[in-house]
Write a structure and sequence with these properties.
The complex is a heterotrimer. Chain A is globular and about 60 Å long. Chain A is mainly alpha-helical. Chain A has one domain. Chain A has 11 helices and no strands. Chain B has 2 domains: 180 residues, 3-Layer(aba) Sandwich (Rossmann fold); 71 residues, ACT domain (Alpha-Beta Plaits), CATH 3.30.70. Chain B has 11 helices and 14 strands. Chain C has one domain. Classes of the chains: A mainly alpha, B alpha/beta, C mainly alpha. Chains in contact: A-B, A-C. Chains A and C meet through helix 3, helix 4 and helix 8 of A and helix 1, helix 2 and helix 7 of C.
């Protein structure tokens, strides 16, 4: 048999290597479906994720109330709507950021450990689809949690400001896209450093929580931290997102004019995934040179 | 006939860091594969034979695109390694060593279905193929339970099933019977044999030579990253034809072993222990002629002999003759 | 939401020391922003809690939270790991008493978290420039030490749940937030409706937290005098470990009967 005959013979048995977009999309859907099935096999995790959100919100709401003049709010009741807006919208972004970092890293570790990462690499399925399917689940999942959190706050703790929804949604899309870029980069980092990635994820979460002013306005930060905050694109995303939804009250946005912030957020949303994926490909190549795809 | 797998001078060098002080470290090169060259033809069962750590798994990982070789080239099913990676992946069904590579939280059926989807098989034929595999491997009782509840042997079986899901022309199996009990191992070999009858090329890695003798048409002995023997199984055995093999059982001190090795007329000798007793395997061109010297050398050096017997040449003897070591030795580079 | 507050990975210890400051920093900065400055924040805070020293108040909360969370995590996480790696069964084969194994683990965890508490509290005070040595330090220490004994019991209770439910990570996550909420991490439990206050007061760390705050910052004891509050904690010292051990052995026997401790 000649090579050509073999190739012809093969084309009948093995699928075409020249995959088209439609096929890749089907695979992507299958990957998301698989993640969903796996998720339903952790029912306790599913329930606790929702329940803990309420505890977190209550925790911060009560903390807020401690700092409001007596009489401004009732003990069991609401906080002022601006404080609520700053906190809640920051909280939503924090959930996305935290989940992206944590889940992607954790996911890849788990697959390295189970050996399924190698199994994935044995197939012709796109590695990009695999990465994106992981973050897609995060968007869906965290999106649900965010909606639940916002509804909870609206119902029980007082009305949140809710303006410029279109621009707010657009900013969210670019912010999420940028966060996925960070997620890709973090996946790359996990491939390289393995277990220590989780410690880093932990530290990073707390750092961005403070530096990106997730739970408080930036002017509360000491000068040094404010200067650092201005170097991090995610800070602008947080600032622009919540200022827009709050309808630009006096003093907001805090870091730059809204036009400048939109430019930064859009650039972040476009460039970061490219950089992140480039880093992932490099890490993947490194893993294939050193044989660490399966190491654990 | 054109080979379906061609490997040319395939070399893999790992760099490992060795700590030489608190802060300083040295980079050490470990040669896992040293210029492997071999051809595998369509429709044959090809054995990759050698002890643990010989480089078999490294070779397989290079061929399946999991590892990037340092040098050399390979073609699988007409596609070139590193250039047509996805085409190569589509051409191979692979089971890696151990029972890993499955999603523990998915059932056996869901695993088969998911991996089938990754090979771009549409749902209907995917289901058909999964059902075929389930029937062929007798997985019916367990296939709807999550993998985390499986025993090690059941995971191995499912991992084997996963390798069949894309119905690829080339099947690469890395020590597939490693943790299986004897009946299951026999069953698996039968399935491999049947698949081969249906026209699939099989690359079968094992460190058990008896398994290779039973299953393989041709094979390559690999030791320390090099091919030390290559050919059909009868050819490999025949390479010792001029020579004979003598086995000595008993208590054999190291001095006696060294004395035997130093004898004129002994090509090679290897000592191993099994169930408390020791076994000395001696390969010599003319075993009868050296028998008196052999017994003298052993007795003079304090050996207690229980049995001396000429035996039929096995693949293991071929390995011993070429390397001076038994297969039980672990040659992994630490 | 994956806020793994406790970390048991390489470098985890350093992070443990930094985390209470991070946790306290959020309400501190938020509070200053709401008040429009440190002075106004302090004044508002006093109206609601009884002390102007909100920084120390929040640092005490976050540090005690770390002790509670750390003790629970140590037992729960250890148990899960052992289950997964199979060493739990090996331990069961050893003739050592279950109680002493758990006591050993918990004691180790407590000593470690107590030392972490000192360092972390000092670090937080340094960062936010408050004096950590004010009020009745010895009394605060007494509340801390007495309060740690019931934690052992809670850890056992928690260990029992972990043995039963396999998804330990999810439970640890949730437990951390419930604990922080009930013990009044950032606020006095007086803000709760009465039924919730009763639930919180059945939880020993609430008394430990308030005791330390009252002795250092003078925010007031639940029963007016320190000795009453300390006596309540004393009662918990007796009841909680006993109850925890009782429940743990019950569940453990159930599991040994049904499936074996190594199953997961």
């Amino acid at each position: 048999m000649t090579n050509e005959q073999i190739a012809n013979d093969k084309s009948q048995r093995a699928p075409s290597p020249f995959v088209n977009f439609h096929l890749q999309f089907v695979i992507f859907v299958e990957m998301v479906r698989k993640q969903l099935i796996v998720m339903t096999r952790y029912p306790v995790d599913f329930v606790t994720s929702f329940v803990q959100i309420f505890f977190m919100i209550l925790l911060f709401t009560f903390a807020t109330i401690m700092f409001e003049p007596r009489g401004a709010t009732e003990m069991s009741g609401s906080m002022t709507s601006r404080t609520g807006g700053v906190m809640m919208y920051g909280f939503v972004l924090f959930m996305f950021a935290s989940d992206t970092l944590w889940t992607i890293g954790y996911n890849i570790r788990e697959e390295q450990y189970q050996g399924t990462l190698e199994s994935l690499y044995l197939t012709p399925a796109s590695k990009f689809a695999s990465l994106v399917s992981r973050v897609t689940m995060i968007v869906v999942w965290t999106g649900l949690l965010s909606v639940a959190a916002v509804v909870f706050v609206q119902l029980f703790l007082g009305r949140l400001p809710f303006q410029n929804v279109g621009l707010g949604a657009l900013l969210l899309v670019f912010t999420l896209s940028g966060m996925f870029g960070i997620g890709f980069a973090f996946a790359a980092y996990t491939l390289l450093v393995k277990e220590s990635a989780q410690t880093t994820a932990n530290l990073l979460q707390f750092t961005i929580m403070i530096v990106c002013g997730m739970f408080f306005p930036f002017h509360a930060l000491p000068d040094v931290l404010q200067s650092i905050a201005r170097l991090v694109p995610l800070s602008y995303a947080v600032d622009a997102f919540r200022s827009t939804l709050m309808g630009y009250p006096p003093g907001f946005p805090e870091l730059a004019s809204i036009e400048t912030e939109i430019v930064i957020v859009v650039a972040f949303g476009i460039l970061m995934p490219i950089i992140g994926y480039w880093l992932y490909q490099r890490a993947e190549r490194h893993a294939r040179v050193t044989g660490s795809l399966a190491e654990f | 006939m054109e080979p379906i797998i061609q490997v040319r001078d395939l070399t893999k060098v790992y760099q490992s860091k060795e700590r030489s002080g608190l802060l300083s470290s040295r980079v050490k090169n470990v040669d896992a594969l040293k210029g492997i060259t071999l051809d595998i033809f369509p429709g044959e069962v090809f054995g990759l034979l050698g002890p643990n750590g010989a480089g078999k798994t490294t070779l397989i990982k290079c061929l399946t695109t999991l590892l990037l070789p340092t040098r050399g080239a390979a073609w699988i099913n007409g596609y070139q390694l590193e250039r047509d990676e996805n085409a190569i992946r589509a051409s191979i069904g692979c089971m890696l060593m151990g029972d890993r590579g499955l999603y523990w939280k998915l059932t056996g059926r869901e695993n088969l279905d998911f991996f089938g989807a990754l090979y771009q098989i549409p749902p209907a034929p995917r289901k058909k193929q999964a059902d075929k595999i389930i029937e062929m491997l007798n997985l019916g009782d367990i296939v709807d339970r999550t993998v985390e509840t499986y025993s090690s042997g059941q995971k191995m079986k499912l991992a084997f099933g996963k390798a069949l899901i894309n119905d690829a022309p080339v099947l690469i199996l890395d020590e597939p019977t490693n943790t299986l009990d004897l009946p299951s191992a026999r069953e698996l070999r039968t399935v491999v044999h049947d698949l081969n009858e249906q026209g699939r090329t099989v690359v079968y890695t094992t460190h058990q030579m008896s398994e290779a003798e039973e299953l393989c048409d041709r094979g390559a002995s690999i030791d320390r990253g090099e091919v030390i023997a290559l050919g059909t199984i009868p050819e490999l055995k025949a390479s010792l034809n001029r020579e004979g093999v003598t086995k000595v059982e008993g208590v054999i001190p190291a001095t006696a072993f060294r004395a035997v090795r130093a004898l004129d007329g002994v090509a090679s000798a290897a000592l191993s222990s099994k169930d408390g007793a020791q076994e000395l395997v001696i390969v010599a061109p003319n075993p009868r002629a050296i028998l008196p010297q052999l017994i003298h050398a052993l007795m003079d050096n304090g050996a207690v002999l229980e049995q001396i017997s000429p035996t039929e040449v096995t693949l293991e003897d071929v390995f011993i003759a070429k390397t001076g070591r038994t297969l039980a030795e672990d040659t992994r580079v630490k | 939401m994956r806020l793994r507050i406790m970390s048991r990975y390489p470098g985890g210890n350093l992070i443990d020391i930094a985390i209470p400051t991070f946790i306290a920093a959020m309400p501190i900065l938020l509070g200053q922003a709401i008040g429009g400055g440190a002075a106004q924040a302090a004044a508002n805070f006093q109206q609601n809690t009884g002390t102007t020293n909100y920084v120390a108040y929040l640092l005490i909360g976050s540090n005690i939270f770390m002790i509670v969370s750390g003790t629970m995590w140590n037992v729960g996480y250890w148990m899960r790991r052992e289950q997964e790696t199979g060493t739990l069964e090996a331990l069961y084969l050893a003739p050592t008493g279950r109680g002493s194994i758990l006591l050993g683990i918990s004691l180790y965890g407590m000593i470690r978290t107590l030392i972490n508490f000192m360092i972390a509290f000092a670090l937080g005070s340094l960062v936010f420039r408050v004096n950590p040595l004010q009020g009745n330090i010895l009394l605060a220490l007494a509340f801390l030490l007495v309060g740690m004994v019931p934690l052992f019991g809670i850890a056992l209770l928690y260990g029992a749940v972990i043995l039963r439910v396999k998804e330990a990570n999810a439970l640890i996550q949730l437990a951390q937030w419930v604990v922080s909420f009930l013990m009044g991490l950032f606020f006095p439990i007086a803000v709760f409706p009465i039924w919730l206050r009763v639930v919180a007061m059945l939880f020993p760390p609430t008394w430990m937290n308030n005791g330390v705050r009252a002795s250092l910052l003078g925010v007031g004891y639940f029963f007016q005098h320190w000795y009453f509050d300390l006596a309540v904690l004393g009662v918990f010292c007796v009841i909680t470990p006993w109850f925890g051990y009782w429940l743990f052995t019950r569940i453990e026997h159930g599991i040994q009967r049904d499936a074996g401790v190594g199953e997961f």
